[in-house]
Each structure stands twice: as C-alpha cells, then as structure tokens.
Design brief:
single chain, 233 residues, mainly alpha, 2 domains, 3-stranded antiparallel β-sheet, two-stranded antiparallel ribbon, 5 strands, elongated
Length: 233
C-alpha cells in the first residue's frame, strides 16, 4: 500500500469515526489526525502532498472566544462556523495555533487538543498529562464525559474543519489511486480472465471513484465506457 492509498483508507476511517460521534471514536479520529500532521518527517499529509503541492487552507470562525471583558472559568470556540458566521482562512501553522479553549485564563490551541487526544486520552496511546494545558484538558475531559457530550462536539468541530481543508488533497489522491486501478482491472478483464465480470464491476467502481475526484475527466470516462460496454456486451 502506497502513501496515497494509506491516506485514503485513514481518511475513510476518520469520516466513519466522526459519524459515530461518541467520545472514544472522536479521540481515535484525533489520533489519526496527529499521525497526518505531527509525525515528524513521516507525517502522512506531508508525504502525500509533496506530489500535488496543494496549499491547504483551514476555514475557521472569527467569533471571539469570549465576549467583552468576561472571564469565564471555561470558554470554547468552535472552529467550525455555521453558514451565517464570519470566517477567515488560515494556513496550517496559524490554524493549529488557533485558540479554541480558554480555561482559568489559560489558552489551549487546536494543536494541544489534538496532541492531548492522541497522547494522553488514548487516540494513539494513553499517557499521563504533563503540561498545564494537558492537566486542564484532562479535567475538562473528565467533567464533560460525565456531564454530557460537549467535549465530543468540540473535537468533532476541529475534525470537520480539517477534513474540509483536505478535500483538494483527498480528490487528488483518489484520482491518483483509482484511475490506474481501473485501467489495470479493465485490461485483465479484456484478456479473458475467468472472473472477467467481477473485474469489470471493480473497474467501473474504480472509475466512478476517479470521476468523483475529477468529474468529466476524459481518461476516466473512456475507461468507464469501455468497461460498461464489455460488461453489457
């Protein structure tokens, strides 16, 4: 499995975990995101995007984390803005430095939330909170897991912003993976493979994935037409 295939499989997993919506699933999704962006030279998004060179932009809310001079014990700012809210586009580093939680006058960033979920809460492995921010997050985590789903909703907002920002990369990776796959499957089917009908079905499915990434692409359309004609012939 190459890097693009690994990224697509992990992206499917993140989407599925986010749709489940329970705290454990969202923490696991945050663990995958840590591997996407914060795995040193092996960060998966960096490795895949070297080929495509997409300039990733993250759309976040411009609403302040707290109104006026109020100093609540805990304030949360969801980076995922409803359609009517003002937004701004951030590059990668400013996005992960975006303050989404203020607790006891301590600012906590998206990067810190992700790393807490991955390295303390169990997204990648369970650990002991060490920094002041991690200790605060552990207290918040414990409270909201007992009292409701607020924390799960918070992590979901971060994940959705990231998935949206990665859509161009995901489309490029899909096309890169599925178009050659469709071509290879069609060639095997046309050479009289005993499971030719099954291979044609797989080729058609791969073409549809490629066309989802790049609608009306002539190469994918041509393979789809040949596979469909062979299947119906």
């Amino acid at each position: 499995m190459n890097d693009a295939q690994l990224y697509l499989e992990s992206a499917k997993e993140v989407v599925g975990l986010t749709q489940k919506g329970d705290w454990y699933s969202l923490v696991r999704a945050a663990g995958i995101i840590r591997q996407w962006f914060f795995d040193g030279g092996n960060s998966l998004v960096d490795k895949v995007n070297r080929q495509f060179g997409h300039k990733l932009l993250f759309t976040v809310t411009k609403i302040p984390i707290q109104p006026g001079n109020m100093k609540p014990i805990l304030a949360w700012r969801n980076p995922e803005a409803p359609p009517t809210w003002k937004t701004e586009e951030l590059k990668r580093d400013p996005f992960f430095a975006f303050v989404c939680i203020r607790a006891l006058d301590t600012d906590i960033t998206i990067h810190q939330v992700i790393m807490y979920c991955a390295n303390v809460a169990g997204g990648v492995h369970a650990g002991t909170p060490k920094t002041e921010e991690e200790k605060l997050l552990a207290e918040i985590d414990q409270f909201v897991r007992i009292g409701g789903v607020q924390a799960a909703a918070a992590i979901r907002g971060i994940i959705q912003v990231i998935l949206t920002a990665l859509e161009p990369l995901t489309a490029s990776a899909m096309y890169e993976v599925y178009l050659p796959q469709a071509k290879a499957l069609l060639e095997r089917a046309l050479k009289g493979h005993p499971n030719a009908q099954q291979l044609l079905d797989q080729a058609i499915a791969a073409c549809n994935h490629a066309l989802m990434a790049k609608p009306n692409d002539p190469d994918a359309t041509a393979i789809l037409e040949k596979a469909t004609a062979a299947k119906n012939g």
